[in-house]
Write a structure and sequence with these properties.
Radius of gyration: 16 Å
CATH class: Mainly Alpha
CATH architecture: Alpha Horseshoe
Strand content: under 5%
Largest sheet: 2 strands, antiparallel
Low-confidence stretches: 1-12
Oligomer: single chain
Shape: globular
Number of domains: 1
Number of strands: 2
Helix content: over 70%
Length: 183
């Protein structure tokens, strides 16, 4: 997203459509894997989630450095990117440490990302619905995961899979819209 200075409106930078699409595709792949193999071991789930979070975090940090954001938007995207990368690294380094560590890392990422998306929805005027939906889905997924720490691995895999697929689908829709704007 690139801010149009002086007008108070925020528009989509259509040349970055492929980055948004890549994020959506990665989220959908991680979600499908989590749904397809809900009975996999904690090690495999931790690795899948960890890789996804590291890639998403790195992309958010890259977007914060190349896109023209308001200062607050740039800082928020950078913080969320670093936190996603950190949560992903925790999952990669200690994937079998226990369901609780994975739950906290995943819930933390969903809530922080949801808050960032809601903040972006408040800042944008034209395309706030997509950011708002992503924010509500992220926060809801994080709250559900945190609310029941005794959640089973299968339920965790299903919740994470559904949340990643919904988020990825919305991101792919946004990428297709951005692509039409670029053409």
């Amino acid at each position: 997203m690139a801010e149009v200075r002086g007008t108070g409106t925020v528009t989509v930078d259509p040349t970055k459509w492929w980055l948004v699409g890549l994020l959506g595709l990665l989220s959908i792949v991680a979600g499908v894997l989590a749904l397809a193999y809900p009975d996999i071991t904690l090690l495999a789930l931790g690795l899948i989630v960890g890789i996804n979070l590291v890639l998403i975090g790195a992309t958010w940090v890259a977007l914060a450095t190349v896109e023209d954001h308001s200062p607050g938007g740039r800082i928020l995207r950078m913080i969320v990117g670093f936190l996603a990368t950190l949560a992903g690294l925790v999952c990669l380094v200690r994937p079998g440490a226990g369901v609780l560590a994975l739950l906290i890392a995943l819930a933390f990422w969903f809530i922080i990302t949801g808050m960032a998306d809601l903040a972006r929805a408040l800042e944008e005027h034209e395309h706030r619905v997509i950011a708002g939906v992503l924010g509500v889905v992220g926060i809801a997924a994080g709250i559900v995961i945190v609310a029941n720490p005794d959640i089973g691995l299968t339920t965790l895999a299903l919740l994470a899979g559904i949340a990643f697929i919904v988020r990825g689908t919305v991101e792919l829709i946004a990428a297709m819209y951005m692509r039409t704007l670029a053409n």
